[in-house]
Every structure is written in C-alpha cells, then in structure tokens.
Design brief:
mainly beta, Thrombin, subunit H, six-stranded antiparallel barrel, 6 strands, about 50% strand
Length: about 110
C-alpha cells in the first residue's frame, strides 16, 4: 500500500497550520518563498565532559524539501518568530536531520 499521497497531505497540512512565511536564501542562489515550521528548541550542554558547563538553547526549524532542494550551512532565512511582526534574519548553522519530506536545521540569529 502506497502512503506517499497521505504523507504529502499531512506535510502540507502541517506546514499550512504551523508554518510561517519565510524567505530562504541559499548561498549564491535566488531567494525562495516558502513556509517554515519553528520546532521546539533543544538544550545542549557545552562543553560536554567539563566541570564548567553551560546550557545553550539550539533553535531549529523545518524546511520543506520539495520547495527548497538544498539547505547548506550559511543559508539565510528571513522569518518571523511566533508573536513578532517583523522578520528577523537567521543563518543555518548545522543540519540536524534530513527527513523524507523536510530538513531539520539548526539556526542562529544574524547579528
């Protein structure tokens, strides 16, 4: 039984319901208008194995693979966070995970 159509429907509904408009600008590429989903921040204890450690929040977002074919490190994302009115610029710092239908990327604010 092929579930591809159902997966595509769920992805579309999820990005429509939870996503926010964004402009994704891969290095040396044209800007792409899409929707991204802010994911729950994770906490990373750094440096690991040291007596003096601190917890840092890692901001992550989901970006559709069918609309944005590649999200290399350094990609810029202009997007608003929930509750804000003006977009902020974020830079992709790392790829967290590649899913069948979306990328999960770690982003940092551009200062």
């Amino acid at each position: 039984m092929d579930l591809g159509g159902l997966r595509a429907l769920v992805r579309d509904l999820n990005f429509q319901a939870h996503g926010v408009p964004a402009t994704v600008i891969p290095p040396d590429e044209e800007p792409i208008q899409t929707r991204v989903v802010w994911l729950t921040p994770s906490t990373e204890i750094v440096p690991a194995g040291s007596d003096a450690r601190r917890a840092e929040a890692r901001r992550t977002m989901g970006i559709r693979r069918d609309e944005v074919p590649a999200v290399p490190r350094g990609t810029l994302v202009d997007v608003t966070e929930h509750g804000q009115t003006a977009p902020d610029e974020w830079r992709v710092d790392a790829m967290e995970k590649v899913e069948a239908d979306h990328f999960r990327v770690v982003v940092v604010p551009v200062s």
